[in-house]
Amino acid sequence: MSSGPRHFSCCANYTYLLCVSLHFAGVVNAKDIYLPNLVSSTGLSKPVRQHRERPLAPGCNAEAHTDYGGDPAFVWGMNFKVRDAAECCEACKAHARKCTSPETQGRQFWKPTISGEGRCGGHLLHGQPVVCNTWVYCGEQQCFSFDIHNHSRGECWLKHVTNPERPEPWNGGDFPPVMRAAPRQNWPWAVAKEVWPYEMPEKVSWIAGVLTPPGGKVVHHDPEDRPDWYHKFCAKYGPC
Fold first, then answer.
1. How far apart are CA 189 and CA 171, in angstroms?
2. What one-character-per-residue DSSP string does 197-227 give?
3. 17 CB neighbour count, 10 Å cutoff
4. Global model pTM greater than 0.70
5. Is 81 in contact with 155 (CB distance < 8 Å)?
6. For residue 61, which of 40, 94, 92 has the smallest C-alpha distance?
7. Are 62 and 56 in contact (CB under 8 A)?
8. Which of 132, 137, 150, 226 lies at 20 to 30 Å from 167 by C-alpha?
9. For 219-233, what is each residue's pLDDT tens digit?
10. Span 121-165, pLDDT tens digits
11. How many whole angstroms separate alpha carbon 150 and alpha carbon 170?
12. Which residues are paired to 156 by β-bridges?
């Protein structure tokens, strides 16, 4: 079991200013902050466009190399593109402030810097209104995911998890070596080469965070909190 921020070197994948902001958020070790020739988390040489990142606000609980599930999703991230991780978190906070009842349905809660529009949708969970408390951002030129889509820089997914202090499903850190070494057809989802022509990356591509109550602390139970596809793969081809 692991708890608290997980420390991974992110500066090979993200810009210098983002690494600094993640350091002050307690996500990245100071020794990992440097300005390298950027490469993607595939470990292969892909051009990555440098861009300026703003510091993340308190309460964003940002974690590098992390992806969260969540239900419902309040925006479709491929059509909701923001400037940086800080804006993605800000959009989640805006949804939580402005979309608090069915009467807010259709109200604009955020206008993304790059593309898309955020409007309250009157989402319900077990008959009760729910708001954003989880955000997931793609900060690389292309982000890996076990699905049919080509995910690119700027995507911002706004979601809801039942317990923001123990968000699940959670996928963070490294993909298991046995999974990375598996033939593509044995991956949890055989991602088409047209979508992802590279090997499975060493680390999760995304940056993610949850909005916690004041004083709240995010913990992860590994591997209990990982997605179903992780457990199914590891049971069949593991151990992981």
1. 15
2. -SPPPSB---EEEE---TT---EE-TTTTS-
3. 17
4. yes
5. yes
6. 92
7. yes
8. 150
9. 999 999 999 999 999
10. 988 888 788 999 999 999 999 999 999 999 999 999 999 999 999
11. 21
12. 137
Q: How far is CA 197 from the centre of its chain?
A: 21
- Letter for the amino acid at 92? C
| DSSP, residue by residue, the chain | -EES------TTTS-HHHHHHHHHTTSS-GGG--------TTSS---------PPPPTT---BSSEEE--SSBSS-GGG-B-SSHHHHHHHHHHHHHH--SGGGTT-EEE--SSB--EE----EETTEE----EEEE--SSEE--SSSS-EETTBEEEE--S-TTS-SSEEESBPPHHHHTS-GGGSSS---TTT--SPPPSB---EEEE---TT---EE-TTTTS-HHHHHHHHHH---
Largest CA distance in the chain: 51
Q: What pLDDT digit, counting tens, does each position of 45-103 carry?
A: 333 344 567 888 889 999 999 999 999 999 999 999 999 999 999 999 999 999 998 88
